[in-house]
Amino acid sequence: MILFSFTANFGSEESCRLHFKEERDKQGVQCKCGSKEHFWIKSVWIYECKKCRSRIS
Question: Is the pTM of this model over 0.70?
């Protein structure tokens, strides 16, 4: 994707981050411990595993 089309699709950094989060949510997030249960920490834009508490970007 060239820079012009990138900025046309994402007017701000937050809209870009939200797009990538939505795509990640569609695929699912799996921790290294094997758990697929996690929660989103919006203040640091990262997932945290409910089982082992490791953080997944």
Answer: yes
